[in-house]
């Protein structure tokens, strides 16, 4: 079983983006961590619990023009969505769609075209850092019982807070996208504790927050860009991790850390200084 696990590790080392979720580069230190866990990467998102209707009305499915689920995201107002930069980087906005108001990604409550998106100007500099983007839709999002904006945080999280992860990420490594939105309750750990668990990982910068829960619980591919929230307040966006839920921390973009960038980018609706750059598609 361990050889099976390591084989998957080596296969993933050559490609660190799997169906939406960024997979960490498998360094010798990380491989050692995996080998000690004995994991075969057969994980479930909080034991496969389906989300209830209206649980996360801010949740969106970012889809291709062909209607395939790519990533998650969170509604922040009637025009804007927050997601991970690696979910949109390099795409033409014309080929992206935003689905709202549903727990079934194939059955949209509503669907919106993407007008433009803005990626943090220091995205991936250094690797895995500043992985955050803002999407603007062409028409105002219609709010109702099942579609509502999330609140941005004013204060950082307290250590050991219980947070809610939602997404259509695979329930097993390399598995299919589940039809129904999944929910997971995770435990936030502060930055020093996370770095201790990660062995001082350079890819986990101060703009990240971490969760660490039991082995077999956590984010997987397809969850990228999706919301991590507490009491309706958005605290994180799925960024990267080891595949999948092996008892190693998952890393999220810290919404509190980037809140000024978010507000500035939304207010200007363009990149007038080096805080973001647009898609570069006309």
TrEMBL record:
Domain of life the protein comes from: Eukaryota
SUPFAM superfamilies: Trypsin-like serine proteases (SSF50494)
All residue ranges annotated as the Peptidase S1 domain in the record: 45-267
InterPro entries: Peptidase_S1, Peptidase_S1_PA, Peptidase_S1_PA_chymotrypsin, Peptidase_S1A, Trypsin_dom, TRYPSIN_HIS, TRYPSIN_SER
Swiss-Prot/TrEMBL GO biological process terms: protein processing
Localization per record: Secreted
Coiled coil start-end: none
One Gene Ontology term of the molecular function aspect: serine-type endopeptidase activity
GO CC term (a single one): extracellular region
Keywords for the protein's UniProt record, in alphabetical order: Disulfide bond, Hydrolase, Protease, Secreted, Serine protease, Signal, Zymogen
Protein's UniProt keywords contain Cell membrane: no
Protein family (similarity comment): Belongs to the peptidase S1 family.
Protein name according to UniProt: GH14252
Species per Swiss-Prot/TrEMBL record: Drosophila grimshawi (Hawaiian fruit fly)
GN (gene name): Dgri\GH14252
